[in-house]
Structure formats: structure tokens, C-alpha cells
Amino acid sequence: MTIALKRLDGGMQTIPDATAEALGRGMTGEVVRPGAAGYDEARTLWNGMHDRRPGLVVRARSTADVVATVSFARENALMIAIKGGGHQIAGLAVADDALLLDLSQMRGVTVDPAARTARVEPGARLQDVDAATQAHGLAVPTGINSTTGIAGLTLGGGFGWITRKFGLTIDNLLAAEVVTADGSVRRASASENPELFWAIRGGGGNFGVVTAFEFRLHALGPEVTAGLIIHPMAAAPGILRDLRKICAEAPDELTVWAVLRQAPPAPFVPEEWHGKGIVALALCYAGSLADGEQAAAKVRALGTPIVDLVGPQPFAAWQQALDPLLAPGARNYWKSHDFVDLSDDAMAVMIEMAGRLPDPQTEIALAHVGGAMARVPAEATAFPQRQAHFAMNVHTRWDDPAKDAACTAWARELFDRTAPFSAGSVYVNFIPDDEPDRLVAAYGDNLARLRRAKDAYDRGNLFRCNHNIRPTAMAQAAE
């Protein structure tokens, strides 16, 4: 028997079954063929829009497995895709007919509470990290959906509820173990392979496969002041204007985000509001409960809310609070802009578009970031969006494939109409698969340095199943 795999030049290559068996010999993990047990689990992505079938899967369990797989792909000039948590909106972690390196079995998290550090394997989800760190009253800033993979989140930058207090996920990355395209295992830190360390802090999976992350941890919890406050959509203009002022004056510990959507049929929402338009404010205070109660008071005093659920709760639970609205399997299409100044005109467009959502699961999220993150120079890491800003992420979400055209058209209209008010930048992890030209928006002046790092560590562009930063020669040839 033979296996057909896509080559880097776009052609197909036949691999004898015996060669695949030889690849798997000595591995801690396993090599999985199409149709075999574990194949569908390995290739399944969070975003149901993407249903891709790799030609062969390696389900790695060790750094040695990763080295063997990367070397096999390079020596045979094969297309290789790398999957951690599989949560990326663009679905680039899996490619048709490619060799898939699945890291989802590598989920270990080891905490050193005395040193306040954690070593995290690349298949870990945020829930794994939170469970291990919160057992010691410690935390690393990550995202807001516990099923997200730590690898993709970190390599793109990583922000969430405690970013304003403790910085981005990458600002708390002390070191990483990286398998580069030549099969070498390198330690990347401020003092070892510093250019590689700079590049992986925001540059995605373009430079190698990270097999371990070492994070700095911070004292937090186990309880924080957090929760949701829900207002009628009719109140949105005033609520958002007031929120804009509150965010501008907020201490680093306080984060408040806004979401425009239809009220879900959740038990904490009065039944008469189910399916009606709302603006939900989600807040988290990364400090003492007493200070959190005081800081939340201004937000809780806005308008006349339908529901106020703010209070002390376990931080790990708050990290999972939005999971039911972001469960795997639905069809998702995102569009995103950054806004340094959230103008009345921009808000008016968002509120109008929220009045004609294409599906009850769809929402417009406004995430306010800044604080500690904004005190890091833009050139210090590959991630450059360091100024305080609101990141608009249009979570267009639905189940029926027949609604694909209508849902994506609605998202694109909102994106186009708000573009004149935006900063022109975007978070790379929010870019869908139909925006290959937004790397300049994602990296700005850092893109040229990222290309030089690509030249140094992956001149042949082995790692290209991502938001691809092409080596200089390839980029120039395409111009």
C-alpha cells in the first residue's frame, strides 16, 4: 500500500506504507493513516467551516517525535501542518493531503510555585494551564475560552481578562523549546537564540515547532471580582459612551469588555429577554475582592441593567464562563479591527448592524486592552499593537451551511463600514483564511525583521501552513 502526500512544490508524492511504518518506529506517539482510529479526532478543528483531510498524521507525544516528523517532512519536501489546540479561526493547522503533526496529546503542565514559573507542553488547553496554576493561587495571562490551545494563543500574542494587569501572554514567556526546520532543538530566551525568541513572541508558527513553553506566573485568586452585566440594546449608545470613559480611566487591574448580541436562552437571563437584543458588559478585576467591588461600582451604576451577575467567583470558573457560547463545531467567520479611539460613528455602525444579526449565535465583541501591555515598546516583540485600544472581533457564528453566504456577507459589511474609523491594525489570531494580505496590518514595521528571522530559521518555508511570513527571496519573487 502507498500513501499520497502533498509536496512543498504543490505536487503529490507517493510514500510506501513501509516508510510510514518506519517513521513511527521508536516514536512515543503514533503514525495514523486516513480512516484509522484517531484520524478524525486529530484532524478535527474548533471551527466547523474547515473540514480538511491530511494524507498522514503523526500524533506526537515527545520532542523526539516532533524532531523525527519535521526531519521527515524536510527530507522529503513534504507539506507539513502543525496542530496544537486547533482553535485558530482560519483553520490553518490542518491542510488537505499534508503531513499533519498533531501536538494535542502533549498537554502536560508543570508548576514550580516557589519560582512562580510553569512549563507547558504545546497541546495544552487554557483550562489545563488554569487548573494547574490556580491550584497554587497563580496565573499567567491567557485568553477567554478555556478550549483554546496555549500554543497558538501564545505564538500570536495572547490577551484576555488579566492582560491589563500582567501583560500579554508573550510578555510572560521566559523561554521556549523550539524544533526548527533543520531538525535542531533550540532553547529560545532573552539570552539564548534571542532573535528566535523575539520572532516567536507574536510571529506565529513560522519559525519552528514549540515543544515547551516556560511562563512567569503571578499571584491571583483563587477568587476574583468578575461577572456579566446585561442591558437592553436600546441603551447601547449611552452605555458604550460611558464605558469608553470608564475604560480610559480604569486601573490596570480592571478590564471591561462589551458584547452586542441577542440574549441567549441561559438560565441567568429572564425568559422574556431570550432572543432580544442586548449589550453585555463583562468585567474582571485582577486584585483584591474589596478593591474589585469598589472598582466595579462605576460599571454596575450604568443605566438600568436587566441582569447584574458581578461578584466574587473562582478565576478558573470565570475563564470558562463564555465557553458555552464558543463551543467547538459551529461554523465561524471572524472579521476584526483595532480602534484607538472608539468613535461615536463607529459605535453607531456596530449598534445598527447588531440590530440585524444573521444568526442568534453571532455577536460583536469589543475587547479593551492596554495597561501593562501598553508599556512594552512595539519593537520589543513581534506583536506590535502596544497602544491601549479596543479590538473589535466580529464573531459571526451559525450551524446551517446554507447560511454561509448571508453570514459572511453580513460580517464583511460590518468590517467595511467600520474600517474608516479603525487604526488599520489587527491581531493576527483574529485573521480569517480569506485575508492573506493583512500581515502588514498585523505586524507593521516589525514585518521586515520577521522576514529576516524567517531567512535565518526557515529559508525554505517548510512551516507555511499558517499566516505565512515568507522568506525574503520568496516574498520578493511574489511581488
For the sheet with most strands, the description reads: 8 strands, antiparallel
Total strands? 21
What structural class should be given to the helix and strand makeup?
A: alpha+beta
Task: Characterize the overall form.
Answer: globular
Strand residue content: 15-25%
Estimate the helix proportion, in percent.
25-40%
Average pLDDT for all residues: 97
Question: Architecture of the largest domain, CATH level 2?
Answer: 3-Layer(aba) Sandwich
CATH topology of the largest domain: Vanillyl-alcohol Oxidase, Chain A, domain 3
Number of helices: 15
How far apart are the termini? 42 Å
What features would you describe in this structure?
- By secondary structure, this protein is an alpha+beta fold.
- It folds into three domains: 2-102, Uridine Diphospho-n-acetylenolpyruvylglucosamine Reductase, domain 2, CATH 3.30.43; 109-219, Uridine Diphospho-n-acetylenolpyruvylglucosamine Reductase, domain 3 (2-Layer Sandwich); 223-430, Vanillyl-alcohol Oxidase, Chain A, domain 3 (3-Layer(aba) Sandwich), CATH 3.40.462.20.
- It has 15 helices and 21 strands.
- Strand 10 and strand 11 (185-189) form a beta hairpin.
- The protein is globular.
- 52% of the residues are buried.
- The model has no long low-confidence stretch (mean pLDDT 97).
